[in-house]
Structure formats: structure tokens, C-alpha cells
Design brief:
Length: 179
């Protein structure tokens, strides 16, 4: 999720020991109407994207389009150079011998797909080299964190604490410095 600086916004962060507790708390918090800002985990948690209500990513389609672009550019470059720009008769083979074009076209497909996907991921998630991010204590070791956004005065802090502690939250903290 993108972190934008908003004024008068507070956050409630709950720390969990087990990923099952995080999943259950995220699911119930979203069903109860709380806005989930983000979830931080030391490992990949399957089903967490559905639990926090994230939409499917468009990154796979972007990577596919980049791969097609790499394939077209690779084939186009090879056909242009070997057929039109500098045709060489090597052993009587035809100028547009496509089996020879397969390795370069494949490599450019993978290269474009990978590099463009990584670039889009970094730009979209604002993962700049020197970005200042809040790092929660022990979240990279063995803790799972669920952060709820308190956008207005209708946020019921006691109900949120009760819900998070019901699902095994080790500690619950509040603040405005989580982004």
C-alpha cells in the first residue's frame, strides 16, 4: 500500500506471534468496518492479501506486456539487421532464418520482463534507496504487525483494542509516526 502523509491521522498497530492470529484479526477487522492501513510480516503469509482487502496486482500484466515488447524488439532487430540492413549469405542459409533468432529473442523477453517489472514495483511502492520508513521492533524476527488507520473521530479505540486482543495480540500501540 502507498504511504501518503496525511494530517490528523492516527494509527493503531497490533503485534502478533503467529500468522494465523494476524489473518484472523485482519479478516475480522475488515469485516467490522475498520480501515486496514498495512500488515508487516517477516515471511510471506498466504491469504493475507485477501484478508486485508487488497485488489489483484496489475504487475503480472505489466511484466507480460514488457516481455512481449522485448520479444518484438529482439525479433525486429534481428530481422532488420540480417535481412534488410546487412544481409550476409552464410552457407546458403536464408536471410530470415528464425531458428537462429530464438535465443536472442528469448533473452530479450526475459530481460525486458524482469527489469521493467522490478522498476514498476520500486516506483509503485515508493521503495526509493534512502526512503525513511518506520521499522517495528522484532517484526523481521518473529512478529507480525497489523496497522489500522484512525481517519476520524468515529474510530472506536476500545472496540479495536478488544478485537485485536481477542485474536492474540501481544501488544497494541497507537501513534501517528507509522508511515
Amino acid at each position: 500500500m502507498l504511504a501518503t502523509k496525511e494530517t490528523n491521522v492516527r494509527y493503531t498497530a497490533a503485534f502478533f506471534r503467529h500468522e494465523e492470529d494476524l489473518l484472523a484479526a485482519a479478516t475480522e477487522a475488515r469485516e467490522s468496518g475498520f480501515e486496514i492501513f498495512d500488515a508487516y510480516t517477516p515471511i510471506a503469509v498466504h491469504g493475507l492479501d485477501r484478508a486485508v482487502g487488497l485488489k489483484r496486482s496489475h504487475l503480472t500484466w505489466i511484466a507480460f506486456a514488457a516481455g512481449v515488447m522485448g520479444l518484438v524488439l529482439g525479433l525486429g532487430l534481428q530481422v532488420w539487421t540480417s535481412v534488410y540492413d546487412w544481409p550476409l549469405n552464410v552457407g546458403g542459409k536464408p536471410f530470415n532464418s528464425f531458428p537462429l533468432f530464438i535465443p536472442v529473442a528469448f533473452e530479450l523477453t526475459v530481460l525486458f520482463s524482469g527489469l521493467i517489472a522490478i522498476g514498476v514495483l520500486v516506483v509503485r511502492n515508493r521503495l526509493w534507496l534512502f526512503a525513511k520508513r518506520r521499522v517495528f521492533e522484532r517484526v523481521t524476527d518473529d512478529r507480525f504487525v497489523l496497522v489500522l488507520k484512525q481517519r476520524d473521530a468515529s474510530f472506536d479505540v476500545r472496540r479495536a483494542h478488544k478485537l485485536l486482543e481477542k485474536h492474540g495480540a501481544v501488544s497494541v500501540i497507537e501513534g501517528d509516526q507509522f508511515v
